[in-house]
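Appendix B, example 12.
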Amino acid sequence: MAASLLFAGSSAQAQVRPDDGAGAYATGHYRNLFAEAGHSPKQVRAKIDAAYAQLFHGDPQTQSVAFAAGRNANGPLMYLTDWANHDVRTEGMSYGMMISVQLGRKAEFDALWNWAKTYMYVSDPKHPSYGYFSWSCKTDGSPNSETPAPDGEEYFAMALLFAGNRWPGGHGIYDYHAEAERLLTAMRHRKVMTGPTKFGPRSVGPEVNEEHAMILFVPGIMPQPFTDPSYHLPAFYELWARWGPEADRAFWMRAAAVSRAFFVKTTNPETGLAPDYANFDGTPHTTRFAQSSDFGYDAWRVASNWSVDWSWWHKAHSEQHLSDRIQRFFAGQGINDYGPVYTLDGKPLGATPGLTHEDHPAGLVGTNAVAGLAATDRARARLFTEALWNTPIPSGHNRYYDGMLYLMSMMHAGGEFRIWGPVRPHGSPLRHAALGSAQ
């Protein structure tokens, strides 16, 4: 079956020049919350580099989550594992790629992408997940699932676009722009396909809900589709509205605006806490999974998402109010004491049985600090910045999810997570990437 037959057509839409806002995209300035708190830029970069070294190249039994896995015709292979659950997830692989492109680590970026394309990518045109990535695999590459989770595809696409801008001229799977465009096209236009998998028949379609312009929790066909607030990434959608497939740019502009309004709808008006899963109107969505309608582990990321959006674009002042709200709530719980899971109105629930996150998890410490990029109460925000600065690099059983959020939060708070724009003809990056680390 020809690949072109698997994507629903869409007529070309009139292109409207996007508003560049007044954030880092327009100015090239990225706040360094640690420097504002009195730490030198050299100390900040050293701390970020130490976290990268430990999580990617540290002791394999107690520190690292990234592991070399030989090589194939495309070069070296590397996977990034959820150590506690002994699997490889598109979430972690795409986070690892994003971290690597931001820090200029091309060898690690390419090895992670090579592993993802080799083992996770579904290349069979007759498979219901064709064009996507299996969200979970064993460390030997065999699948635990043959269906995707859209947060992985979102971070893959954004990391690939940054890589194409930072390291142009690649070929094959390392033609990063071409790979990103194929993935973004599939995310919106993949036709619904039903067929067998190793785990039974599945029906899989687009990863977005067209009517609501929202990312789906899963693209599998279900009676009541819903979303995950932590999958909403308007900061990325704005860039796809500029650099993604031309026919879809108006859609991603709309999706960015929708997500900004959705953050207000889905968060509690007193605490600023969002649920793990939500309906398209923002109300919590209950599933068989524990705490799906509460502030759980997925929801840790929501404040970081809206705060980075504010930092890069300055388009929704509501994001500032949301950051003030959630930092006020967690300050009231004790800046060094709050737990991992809460009801939306702020009642602590404690760790989920069977999960291994600490009582005061480093990942949540990180995302709460990133909220300071949008907060207006800078004195209170600085308390969260210092709490992250003083948090050790995650190690041991909890080092995967906490470690990835910790490192990305350090980069956001330290001004080292940036927009890498297209290269000018003479080779210099656009202004909004000019302050990026030139490695």
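Residues 1-5, 9-14, 431-439 have pLDDT under 50 and may be disordered. The chain has 14 helices and eight strands.
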